[in-house]
Amino acid sequence: MIQCNTHFSPDAADMTHRILLPLTLGVLLTVPTQGVYLEPDQSLRIPDGWTRTARLAGSDPVILTFALKQQNVDKLQELVGRVSDPESSHYGHFLSLDELRTLVQPAGDTLKTVRTWLEKHGVRDCTSVLTGDFLQCETQASTAEKLLPGAQFHRYVKGDMSVIRSSSPYSLTPEVAAQIDFVGGLHRFPAEREVLRRSENNRSSVGAEFHLGVTPSVLRERYNLSASDIGAHPNNSQACAQFLEQYFHPADLSEFMQLFGGSFQHRSEVDQVIGQQGGGRAGLEASLDVEYLMSMGANISTWVFTNPGRHESQEPFLEWMLLLSNMSSLPWVHTISYGDDEDSLSVAFMERINVEFMKAAARGLTILFASGDDGAGCRTVGKEKNVFRPSFPASSPYVTTVGGTSFKNPFQVVYEVTDYISGGGFSNVFPMPDYQVSAVSKYLKSMEKLPPDSYYNHSGRAYPDVAALSDNYWVVTDRVPIPWVSGTSASTPVFGGILSLINDQRIKRGLSPLGFLNPALYRLQAPDAFYDVCQGCHLSCIDDLVLGVGFCAAPGWDPVTGWGTPNFPALLKALLL
Q1: Looking at per-residue confidence, does 549 or 3 come out higher?
Q2: 512: burial class by Cβ within 10 Å (0-12, 13-18, 19+)?
Q3: How many angstroms separate the Cα of 479 from the Cα of each of 92, 203, 257, 289, 336?
Q4: 3-state secondary structure 443-484
């Protein structure tokens, strides 16, 4: 670990705060006594900005996604541990999609029970995925409400967006409920993440040898990438996913590379777009993801998964997960700038999605998620009582989560400090995985001042795992260069591109791709592989106990910046196992 520059004592007065509104919990309606409700903890609260309009007519179409019970989840978990552990003889021995299907596909009784039930209600327009563990069916709203007693479908609108969701919980007969993990297309509203724009008025004075914002050349200088650090292997590829009518424009990518890609060999076109690209204005989020994944993972074949949720009852994030289970050939690294609050999702949903991440790990995919831009988060749970608010999928133990940093001097390529928005903390759903127990325990024991125990679950999966710069980026969108773009949506594709370069070198040497990174990451014996970030805290609840301060950075791993930011040559050397 590259030594921290200075010791830092947190001062809440130095932090920029935002007001976090208390959560109003949804009220669960009565479920028929003969039915089983699979997601009893799913919040039915309507997110801010959404308005319920009319109930659907009986003939209106809806799409339902049935997550069928899988076999051998325990064996899958053990296998992921073996293929992801550099000290295991099975390290890098990943499964093909066919092999994965054989392992996890639902039992014959599961398929027979569910299909018989659907056909009894006249539902025959269904498709499956290659692993056989999801079934997606289109039917009429009246039929869906008979299938799922208690469900009532309404249309909700927010600006130009429109979704169909049930305003009440659904139930299943005990026989069918025993074969299904959850039903998609009923409850979860699309999670929105806005890229941050910070005003230059907040910047300190400019010194000598300054830069005017983060660009690929600045990142490459900071993380020690030379012009020759580019991809070259034909079997290497990377991807990002975009949701909620977020699109990139090829013309923006081309202009970005003309403006900022002159010092290294690169590609100016995406090789594959999976899904439908929309017209109209480009999305700042999508432009940021594509431009920085392709400039850091330079000259590497890049795919873009676009899941707009065009059908109003689709869940875009779930649609992306289904694609992973339905494609035999996929890029090795995936970066996703998406997240939702754990408390807004049912445990059944999160646990099943966690298994989907295990499936990706078994195939050798590296999945990176942004840690979020709300620091530790905050949720009101009682009168004058708050708790921190972890984010999912950032809190999954089977993804690598990326936090954010800022330059100490925002106009100079100097050492990094915590970006106060950097998401981080401890899961309330997933226990702490073995691979991080030692590092997290060291942090908790060494910190002189921690938030009160009542604010977080110190035995939960801790995140983020790593970090990169998340402040003051230049992005081209709708042919216009835009400055001051910030957030972990920026740091995630940057780190993903760096991992793609490492994969390129591993594949050249006949080694496997990195796959699920965390087991190797937490046992690296390479103190110079990361720039340790020791200064700064992130934001949290504004109350009398924590005063807006969440966790603070420290030497080694911390729940604000993880292990720190990458020093590419040393990280490459350490991961060429």
Answers
A1: 549
A2: middle
A3: 42, 26, 12, 16, 23
A4: HHHHCCCCCCHHHCCCCEEEECCEEEECCCEEEEECCEEEEE
Amino acid at 283: G
Q: Annotated catalytic sites, by residue? A: 285, 289, 489
How confident is residue 1, by pLDDT bands cut at 50, 70 and 90? Answer: low
CA–chain centroid gap for 275, Å, is 19
> In the structure, how many helices (H) and strands (E) does the chain have?
14, 28
> Distance of alpha carbon 167 from its chain centroid, rounded?
27
The size of the chain, in residues, is 577
Cis link prior to 464 (omega < 30° from 0)?
Answer: yes
Q: Tell me the C-alpha to C-alpha distance, in Å, between residue 25 and each of 82, 90, 211, 344.
A: 41, 46, 46, 9
Rg of the chain in Å (alpha carbons):
23
Q: Which of 160-169, 318-327, 460-469: highest mean pLDDT?
A: 460-469
Distance of CA 198 to the CA centre of its chain: 23
| pLDDT for the residue numbered 370 | 97
CA dihedral angle for residue 569, residue 571, residue 573, residue 576, rounded to 10 degrees? -140
Q: Let me know: does 220 contact 498? Beta carbons within 8 Å.
A: no
Write the DSSP string, 295-353: HHSTT-EEEEEEE---STT--HHHHHHHHHTT-SS--SEEEE---EEGGGS-HHHHHHH
Three state DSSP letters for 359-413: HHHHCCCEEEEECCCCCCCCEEEECCEEECCCEECCCCCCCEEEEEEEECCCCCC
The two tokens of residue 271 are 């090789």
What pLDDT score does 366 carry? 98
Predicted local distance difference test score (pLDDT) of residue 199 = 54
* Residue with token string 């991807």: 239
Number of other CB atoms surrounding residue 51 within 10 Å: 9
The answer to whether 35 touches 173, Cβ cutoff 8 Å, is yes
Give me the percent of the chain exceeding a pLDDT of 70: 89
Mean pLDDT score of the chain, rounded to an integer? 90
